[in-house]
Amino acid sequence: MRKRIHQVVVLGAGVMGSRIACHLANAGLQVLLLDMVPPALNEKEKQQGLTEENPAFRNRIVNDALQAAVKSKPSPIFHNSVLQRIRTGNFEDDLHRIATCDWIIEAVVEQLLIKQSLFEKVEQHRKPGTYISTNTSGIPIHLLAEGRSPDFRRHFCGTHFFNPPRYLPLLEIIPGPETLPEVVDTLSQLGDRVLGKTTVICKDTPAFIANRIGVYSMMLVFRLMERQGWKIEEIDALTGPLIGHPKSATFRTADVVGIDTMVHVARGLYENCTQDEQRDLFQIPAFLQQMVNTQRLGDKTGEGFYKKIKSTDGQSEIRVLRLDTQQYEPRQKFSSPAIEQARNISDLGERLRFLHGLKDRVGEFFRHFTYALLAYVSHRIPEIADELYKVDDAMRAGFGWEMGPFEIWEALGVAETTEQMEKAGYAPAHWVKEMLQKGNTTFYLREADRVSCYDPQQKEYRPVPGSHEIIVLRNYSQQKIWENAGTTLYHVGDGVLNLAIHTKMNTIGSEVIQGIQKAIEFAEANYEGLVIGQESPNFSAGANVALILTLALEQEWDELSMAVQAFQQTSLRIRYARVPVVVAARGLTLGGGCEFCLHADAVQAHSETYMGLVEVGVGLIPAGGGSKEMTQRASEAYHQGEIDLPKLQERFLTIAMAKVSTSAQEAFDLQLLRPGYDRVTMNANRLLADAKQRVLEMARSGYVPPSPPRIKVLGREALGLFLTGIYAMQEARYISEHDAKVAQKLAYVMSGGDLSEATEVNESYLLDLEREAFLSLCGEPKTLERLQSVLKQGRPVRN
């Protein structure tokens, strides 16, 4: 029976503890954060006349730590309001308060004796049945539980959050030898559904799963670099997004994590994994030890493998360490025709096959790296996990790999790669060859409604728990309804269609416009409704800037007008479809992507949704219905029909300042998401399934599309206010002359034009105004400069 968790105590307010507390509060839990009492009054406290009995002194460590966490970048909180759910205190005065809590999380320094001492004190106040866990990254769970009562041991386990807890979705749960199954089940489900985590149940082995494999892969890269003569920036070019790993690749990741931390974990693995056939790989290379000795520990000391240098003109430059000289030098760009060709291959599996087939030193590096890694993970089964999918889940969620090791193996071809590994001197575990001899050539069997994974112990495929509860679009390949170059339409069961966008950055051009129109057409004919969304990290970066720039430069005004009109009509098609349309938003949801959300019946947004109408930044205004829609929402907010300029001004500023939410919760503040209509999903893996359920919920309650509204626009009263504010901003030099021109165009649209009094208009009237403003701005040289800058540099020039 699962326990309900409402109140949580976090013991230790260091980097991890404070950020765990913040994320628990993000998820709506009540949190008590405790830490030590300071050893003595500092000078500032003495000057303030504080005594050692004053709570401000006694809670200084915990309060300072929490404030430091909140001020850190990226922010650990969704919204400032979540801090209301965090209370603070100290171990001496407040430890008794744990008696009212449901779950205690220990997150103090990684030393066994200190943790055991704290647990002894905790047991004096903890009520029987309260869950208790440790956030250790490597200390054996069974050692931490030694000396504790039977009830403590039965309700104790490891819960290893990855840093930063808000952004890295992995939560490793490590049962002790006596941990009750219901404790593991409750925390696993809480992590999944409430905290938004990929929860992986691990064995109590050194470094558990993700760090065991992740640190091995980094140490392997170090060895290959030394053996094959690579430079640091060359390795990072090869081990980042090119192979489906994060941009931080290998050495930048080490700087972020901390060189000393990585050395500590690697040394622990060498000392504790005495039966590991690759144990010697965990010995610390001389260059790494030298960096620790000289305190080049990465970001925490300001220099590691990379260092930010300020030049005499005040500009910053990133330099890279040369291991032979221990000097920092300018980075050298590394590429080749083959690498550039690989970057143009969108499918990761196909890209990996291409890279492994190269006959140059790049191909040699990838083959040795991959063969060694795959052989290693095969030998960790069943040592660190009985199930293969746990290894893949841990590496995707903890290290940000697009594919886990067994998924990579499968993408390269299990049988062919195994044969090549053996020829190169890398021996996989016996169970792999046994699996192949039985005629099983894949690790996974993927069906529309579930995934099965090969079980080496049972020698058969077994369903992956929970896989039937989520939607993985590639499993629906047999249920494709329609596709074009930029979209694919799937039937995802129960009469619901899902349109996935797969252009570069999911930008919106003619193929996406066609895809949405076709998807709604299919849905209205034979289905219950439509989800627009996909599993990629970003929903959409907005309209296709290259297309807009090309048409504007060539002065194809009629064609550009038709393109804008098609965009507007697609937004209206979403709004007035005869079946419910739900957008599954996540990550970047900008410009046109945001406009589609504004017109959907509902948005099912992942908690990490960065939404905004950002067109002003490139010298344009929202013209896919966004300016119209924000004006309409202001009109709907007017109290009992009375004119309320602040309601319109709020929405005007949201667009004029190109505000982007830093979370889904903040998108509600910006009126981009609507309470009562739009909802938030914490776990990105569940986003499409939740959006599908939202469609079914509306369809089964007798969905009727909305009627076209009458929109109250305020004319000159609003226009005068906006123009006065714009003039003041320009005079104060907060905005440029061109910024002012763009804002004036937006003001004209959202005021409804130069009308003498407040008037009710229809949508077409405002759509015409925003289209005309958009086209006129496309003819401005400074707008064209901004568009060109976005394409060349990734950001608009300020002009």
From TrEMBL:
GO terms for biological process: fatty acid beta-oxidation. Pfam families: 3HCDH, 3HCDH_N, ECH_1. It comes from the Bacteria. Gene3D superfamilies: 1.10.1040.50, 2-enoyl-CoA Hydratase, Chain A, domain 1 (3.90.226.10), NAD(P)-binding Rossmann-like Domain (3.40.50.720). InterPro entries: 3-OHacyl-CoA_DH_NAD-bd, 3HC_DH_C, 6-PGluconate_DH-like_C_sf, ClpP/crotonase-like_dom_sf, Enoyl-CoA_hydra/iso, NAD(P)-bd_dom_sf. Pathway: Lipid metabolism; fatty acid beta-oxidation. One of its GO terms (molecular function) is (3S)-3-hydroxyacyl-CoA dehydrogenase (NAD+) activity. Keywords: Fatty acid metabolism, Lipid degradation, Lipid metabolism, NAD, Oxidoreductase. Residues 208-307 form the 3-hydroxyacyl-CoA dehydrogenase C-terminal domain. It catalyses: a (3S)-3-hydroxyacyl-CoA + NAD(+) = a 3-oxoacyl-CoA + NADH + H(+). The keyword NAD applies. Transmembrane segments: none annotated. The keyword Aminoacyl-tRNA synthetase does not apply. Residues 7-205 form the 3-hydroxyacyl-CoA dehydrogenase NAD binding domain. PANTHER family: 3-HYDROXYACYL-COA DEHYDROGENASE FAMILY PROTEIN, 3-HYDROXYACYL-COA DEHYDROGENASE-RELATED. This is 3-hydroxyacyl-CoA dehydrogenase.
